[in-house]
Design brief:
alpha/beta; Rossmann fold; 9 helices; 7 strands; binds S-adenosylmethionine
């Protein structure tokens, strides 16, 4: 059974109905840009569709919770359907779980990380410190995400190495400056209609992430109950 089939079964098991979802969408006809948010918020609160076995965390080596993995899974699948030839990117790979999930879909993925932990932390903005989230077994991680294009080194200095147009980007860098630079780069290089998901917008320990996102994006952003921020470039 595919992950999507497991999720559909989970919704069916807890009494979910496509009719309810369609009714909800009809109820918000003007909220076209927030369509995804309303849909996801409703699904999340009501059905907890990430409650599948094995869980995302059992399937993938990730620091993210199952609900956040579910969101990334859904949006990236959607973008892959719309832009089957476009690559995707992850900024902040750590042990590789998200990158691996994207690779499993058959997508070309650019994986940006120092692989030796956080850089660009600044006590003025960030509660995190340089060196946190260092990957112990770097070779093991590189083997785990074999097939990804590895861009190893410190953001922002590595960003200019890649000149691509992405359909989907995941940004999970935990600190202000790296997030600011990665989001600026990602928004310049995302296809019209493409999606960027930023982790930790709602985390008390990552206030610099929220500040960076708010400085760059005034509109086109939707805050999810998972703490993630979804940004879509208009078509
Ligand atoms: C919270 S972890 C990412 C978790 C990962 N997305 C997952 O699914 O498990 C944050 C990552 O950002 C990376 N990072 C932080 N600052 C960076 C910078 N300036 N340049 C490149 N990578 C950075 C760290 O090395 C770490 O791997």
């Amino acid at each position: 059974m595919t992950i999507q089939e497991k999720i559909d079964k989970r919704i069916e098991d807890v009494g979910g109905s496509k009719k309810i979802i369609e009714g909800l969408i009809d109820h918000y006809p003007s909220e076209t840009t927030n369509y995804g948010c309303i849909f996801e918020g409703f699904i999340l609160a009501r059905y907890k569709p990430w409650d599948i076995t094995p869980t995302y965390k059992e399937m993938y080596r990730t620091a993210l919770s199952n609900d956040r993995m579910y969101i990334i899974d859904q949006y990236s699948s959607n973008m892959y359907k719309q832009f089957p030839d476009a690559p995707m990117a992850e900024f902040g790979v750590y042990t590789g779980g998200v990158t691996c999930m994207l690779l499993d879909k058959g997508i070309k993925v650019f994986a940006f990380d120092t692989f030796c932990g956080i850089k660009q932390a600044n006590a003025r903005h960030d509660a995190h410190e340089n060196g946190e989230y260092a990957v112990g077994d770097v070779q093991g991680t590189l083997d785990y995400i074999q097939g990804a294009v590895i861009i190893e080194g410190e953001i922002p200095f590595t960003l200019s190495q890649v000149d691509e147009k992405f359909s989907f980007c995941h940004i999970d860098l935990d600190v202000y400056r790296a997030t600011h630079q990665a989001l600026w780069y990602a928004y310049q290089n995302i296809l019209p209609g493409g999606v960027i998901i930023c982790d930790d917008y709602g985390m008390e320990t990552c206030k610099g992430v929220k500040q960076a996102i708010d400085e760059i994006m005034v509109g086109n952003k939707v805050y999810l109950p998972t703490g993630q921020m979804v940004i879509q470039k208009p078509c």
